[in-house]
Amino acid sequence: MFDVGDKVVYPRHGAGTIVAIEEREVLGEKKKYYIMQLPVGNMRVMIPLDREKEIGLRSVISIVETEKVLRILRGEGTSMAKNWNRRYRANMEKIKTGDIYVISEVVRNLTLRDLEKGLSTGEKKMLNNARQILISELVLAQDSSEEEVTSTIDEIFTEEI
Questions:
Q1: Dihedral of CA 64/69/75/78: which sign?
Q2: Domains contained in the chain, CATH given
Q3: What is the pLDDT at residue 40?
Q4: Is there a contact between 18 and 6 (Cβ–Cβ < 8 Å)?
Q5: Counting C-beta atoms within 10 Å of the first and last residue's C-beta, which end of the chain has fewer, N or C?
Q6: Cα separations in angstroms, 75 against 35, 58, 59, 72
Q7: What's the rounded Cα separation, in Å, for the pair 103 and 107?
Q8: Distance of alpha carbon 16 from alpha carbon 37, whole angstroms
Q9: pLDDT tens digit string along 67-121?
Q10: Which of 41-50, 62-71, 78-87 has the lowest mean pLDDT?
Q11: How far, in Å, CA of 69 to CA of 72, rounded?
Q12: How far apart are CA 50 and CA 28, in angstroms?
């Protein structure tokens, strides 16, 4: 169970801070919810307490672990399916895991492919979504701004060229 003030990751939306725990009535049923504030996009998300494990809610990585994320981003791209549809499905499954290191690989691989050959519209949208998830966690882990983290990631890929 998490408390108000805890920094957590909701796999499909990214990282945020629990700003409240409230009981709400939704569709005639009273439940307790975490109210999570996302730093990127300034969005609030309600997460049912009784589904936190099923959803995959977890704590934000530590400042030390952010170095591993940056190493992954700087690493060599791994091979992906040539067929965009297979590539899309495989990357979507990776993003759904909520694992920051796996999401880092997706961001790296799609960014490198975009620089090399370009991406389909669907893959561009997927890359933007994965980047937002990654950025939101790094913002909280490093106690940094969205602009600083975005700049760091962008610099990694401009070094590649």
A1: positive
A2: 7-59 (2.40.10.170), 63-160 (1.20.58.1290)
A3: 73
A4: yes
A5: C
A6: 36, 25, 25, 5
A7: 6
A8: 5
A9: 999 999 999 888 887 888 899 999 999 999 899 999 999 999 999 999 998 898 9
A10: 78-87
A11: 5
A12: 16
Secondary structure of residue 43 in the 3-state scheme: coil
What CA–CA distance (Å, rounded) separates 150 from 143? 13
Q: What would the two tokens of residue 5 be?
A: 């003030």
Q: What is the DSSP letter of 55?
A: H
**DSSP reduced 3-state for 37:** strand
For residue 98, what are its two tokens? 């909520």
Q: How far apart are CA 152 and CA 140, in angstroms?
A: 15
Token pair of 42, please?
Answer: 């300034």
Best CA proximity match to 136, nearest among 34, 46, 14, 19? 14
Would you say 114 and 104 are in contact if contact means Cβ atoms under 8 Å apart?
Answer: no
Each residue's pLDDT tens digit, 21-37? 999 988 898 999 999 99
User: Mind spelling out the 3-state secondary structure of 62-111?
Assistant: CHHHHHHHHHHHHCCCCCCCCCHHHHHHHHHHHHHCCCHHHHHHHHHHHH
